[in-house]
Amino acid sequence: MKGRGGRRWSGEEEYSRARRRIFTLESRGGRSRALVEDLPFDEKFQCDPIESGLELILRGLEFLCENPTPRRRKHAILNFSAGAEALLRERLRQEHWSQVFQDPARATREAFERGLLPAAGLMDCLLRLEGVCGVEVPAFWRWGIESLARRKSLLELRGFVESTPVLVCIALAAARPFVDSVPPGRLTPSLAAILDAVRGKLTRLEGQVTEALRRIGTQHAGASLLNCPNCRLEGTLIVRGGPKCLFCGYSGRPEDLAAEYALDFFPDEDRFIYRCPACDRDALLDVGSPDEDPWYVCFACSRSWELGRLAFCAWCDQPFEPPEGSPDEEYCPACRRGSREP
Fold first, then answer.
1. How far is CA 300 from CA 141, 243, 283, 321, in A?
2. d(Cα 141, Cα 176) in Å, to the nearest integer?
3. In this predicted structure, what is the pLDDT of residue 26?
4. What is the pTM of this model?
5. How many CA atoms lie within 13 A of 278 on its CB side?
6. Between helices 122-131 and 70-95, what is the axis angle to 10°?
């Protein structure tokens, strides 16, 4: 910066001038109060990506554990996603420095050293972790990262409505693999302290979830409980009286929830949504595991059928209950009456 007479001021000289001006403004009326302390020009600090990422995750967990107000929930999402991005990019950097950029084809060494190009987002990092690094991503971790990325985008684009229990499940799914995969060679005393704090917060949240699941199991003993497609917890979705998750409160139209259940839990299978023979709504789904016998549940009327209790119409391919005394019946009642089109 140039002063009077064309002289070029150094950074320290300009700071001293600005500091004197502030003191002059604050000395009016005989009062003298220093607003700016001497800055430590000679001190530097180093930002390690693993330590920084885990610190951000710890901050996000603190927002969820301690008085989770709406404002703290939003900051939990932002801190958590920033920490996850830093840790994933560091893993990509170990493969090759160009992979940390949004567009690796434009990457240059200068851009990497000076941070001149946009960095890869959460979803890009996750895809490259599999495709470039050859890391097998567990399904539950993938769900946590994808859910975190989606909610961050919604928060920045248009906002959204979400419950704290879902954010807790996302945090547990996304954070645990990071904690368990820190390279031993990178472990320092300060990083070890951060890891211990993160583990403590995760253990606290896991205890709260376990206690909630215990209460749900006790209060609804004997009821047919499914997995929730929103929080991904097992045995929390009850369909009697309308499908609703007893942990996170997720609910919706039975037809929509049946389709979402099939896409989320059986993405690689052809799980068709059938018309329920009891209530005649398109909300019947086989929710049995791939290695188990089919178990058909209606998300609308909560009726269920095991293997052998239903037959499929040879004309419309919809399930029906064979009439007593005619177990080999090939056509459903509607097709026998000629009232249903295939």
1. 31, 7, 6, 17
2. 8
3. 46
4. 0.77
5. 14
6. 30
